[in-house]
Structures are given as structure tokens and as C-alpha cells.
Amino acid sequence: MSAAQPLWKTFLRFLAPLMLSNALQSLFGTISNVYLGQMIGVDALAAASVFFPVMFFLFAFVMGLSTGATVLIGQAFGAREHDKIKLVVGTTLAIGLLLSVSVALIGGLFSRQLMMALATPTDILDQASGYARIMLLTMPLGFVFLLMTAMIRGVGDALTPLLALALSTAIGLILTPVLIRGSFGLPAAGITGPAWAAAIANALTLIALALYLLRTKHALAPDAILLRQLRLNGVMLGKILSIGLPSAVGMVVMAIAELVLLGLVNGFGSNATAAYGAVNQVMGYTQFTAMSISIAVSILGAQAVGSGDRARLDGIVRIGLTFNLVLTGGLVALIYLVPRAVLGIFITDSAVLDLAKGLLDIALWSSVPFGLATVFSGAMRAAGVALTPMLLSIFAILAIELPAAVILSRTIGLEGVWAAYPIVFCAMLVLQMGYYLLVWRKRAIRRQV
Prior knowledge:
Elements: H1 7-39, H2 42-50, H3 52-78, H4 82-117, H5 125-137, H6 139-152, H7 159-181, H8 193-215, H9 224-228, H10 234-266, H11 270-306, H12 310-337, H13 339-343, H14 350-363, H15 367-382, H16 387-411, H17 414-438
Helix pairs in contact: 1-2, 1-7, 1-11, 2-5, 3-4, 3-6, 3-10, 3-11, 4-5, 4-6, 6-7, 6-8, 7-8, 10-16, 11-12, 11-14, 11-15, 12-15, 14-17, 15-17, 16-17
């Protein structure tokens, strides 16, 4: 990072590849589902969808682990202590491999029982079990790939993970239809095709990534020093988990709250459920922009904490808030200009479209206060403070969002469920900003590594 470069340019150079990376990850999952639905049928798509709750919980843990590691890597990088970077990476990969191998062995043996526990319909149980078995057996490759691409960003490098994800996505998209049907002498894998394609893509990309990191002498190159650190360091693991676990728990609580809201929406009929799905897809794009900005604040902020530069951290927070107003707010405004065109991508029924538009009008703008709140929590996480921001978010969800959704759904109907979104996101902004300005901002910051 050039010291002479304006901070907003540094921020934007990091943010743009990060947003593209997240888009690529979503793209691969979406197109894999299209392949399954179009090439095999709706049963195959349903069978793969049953595995989603399992995947989400595993993904939440990996994201939490990578969040903790990335903050510590950013702090070590900012302090120019490259030996500490290898220690963090080695410990993170060691715990990631240990857990993912355990998941692979247990999940591979008991995938059918797991699918039965999730109340999978009997007509798709065999397909769902086969898909789950391969996904779980190949989990170590997915864990390592996600951890490595996330940790590389800790040293301010968002381009290398983007290139790795582009390569992995390209390989996966080429292999998926080939493996589903069986071509070029390969047997037809059917529903397990996307799972095998993802595993092969991850393996090939990890090899290419390792060679690239070694050739460029990257800070995260898998050299002899890193391999010696590939072990569980209890002290470092504790620091990683102290930041990472609150992040993972926060994700899980938000997901459970969404299930509760979905249950309320379902009570208003299938049209309401269809509208909920479409509005959530649209809001997903605005929230995804806000979350990308929060990650950038967290990583660049961690580097500022590592170098002991409080003024730079303050500048990063200001830029994060500005980018949220400009990018997230701009995207919200754009959607408000043409709501029917955007919702029409997901909905064809005019009655559902009218309903969805009304719900979008109520909730979409709340992505902006949501984004502003995540900037404050991201800045505190950069200094290793993750528990209090997580507790504030959980308080907002459990004590404000869910009661508001239940009460308002009974008094004003379906619109009441959607009104809970702006209520909770505004509450989160007040809580996170209040704690940041009145408590955290007055404390001395210190790095954990």
C-alpha cells in the first residue's frame, strides 16, 4: 500500500475485487442449481437444496474462523511482523483441516441419517444422501480454499483471491454439466456432479494458487516456514476464536431469525411466500454491497491497528460510511426507480409482483442503515473487539426485530413483517454507533499479535 495514495483510492482498490469475488461465489451456486434443475429435474434441485442448512452452519463456522484469522493477519501485516502472519495462517489451517476432516469422516458415514434427521421427503432421500455424502467427503478442500482466499486479503491483497475464484468458478462451470451427464469418457455422476465439480475445481485452483504464491514470494506462500507452523498453537487459536466465534454465532442467529420471519410470511399464503423470496433476492444485493464494505473496513482497519495509526483507522471508518451512502444508497435508489423491472426478473405473476413492490417500498431503504451499522462493528472487529458488537446485534434481533414482526404482522398484516427490517436495522445503527462513539472510541486500541 502506497503511503502517498489517497485513502479512498486504497479502499476502492481493495473493495472492487472483493465485491467481484463475492459475486463469483454466488454465481457458481446459482448456475449449479440451474444445471441440476434443467439437466436432471426439479427433484434433483430439491435434493440438493435439503443440504443447504448443513452447508450454511459449516460455512458460518469457516467464515467466523477466517474473520478472526484475517483481522490478526492484518494487524501483523500493519506491524510488519511477517513471522506472526505465518503463525496465524498455520494455526488457522491446522484447526480448519482437523475439523473438516472430522466432518468428512462422520458426514461421509452418516449422510443418510443426517438427511433423515432433516425430514427429507422419502422420494428424494437417496438423491439427497448421495449429494450430501460427496459434499461432506470433499469438505476439507472447500474449507482450505475458503480459508486461504480469505486470509490472503488480510495483507491487503484482494486481487489474488479474485483470480483464484475466477479460475475455480470457470473450472466448476465447465465440469458440472460434463459430470452430471457423463462426457469425454467420464461416467455420469448425476446429482453428485456439482459436488464433484466443486471439489476438483478447488483442488486444481489450490495447486495453482500455491505455485503462484511461492513464485511471487507472497506473505502467505506455503513455504517451509509456513509448513513448520502448520500445527495447533493454543494461544494463537484462542485469539483467532475470540474474534471468529462471535462472528459465526451472529451469522447463525440472523439465519434463525430469518426462518422465524419466513414462518410468519408463510401464514399469509403462497403469494406472500413468493413475494418474500423475490424481495429477499433483491435486498440480498444491497446488503451484499454493505457487507463487502464492512469486510474492507475490518481488514484495512486491522492493518491500521497493527501499525498503531489511530488517525488512519478513523479515516477508514469515515470512508466506509461514505461508500455505504454512495454505493449501497445509490443501488437502493436505482432499484426504487425501476422496482417492477428488477422484481420481474424473479416474478411473472402480476398479483405477486404488486405485492412484492409494496413490500420492497417498505424495506429496501433499510439496507443503508444496515450498512452504516456494519461499518462501526467492522472497525471494532479490526481491533479484536467482536463480542460486544455481536451481543448488540443479537439483542436487536431477539428483543426488537422478532417481537416487532410478530406484533405488527397481527395488527397491520404482511406489511408488518417487512416493517421489522427498517426497525431492526435502525436500532442496530443506533446501538453500534452509540457503543463505538461513547465507549469504544474513548479506549486505547492495541493489537492482539
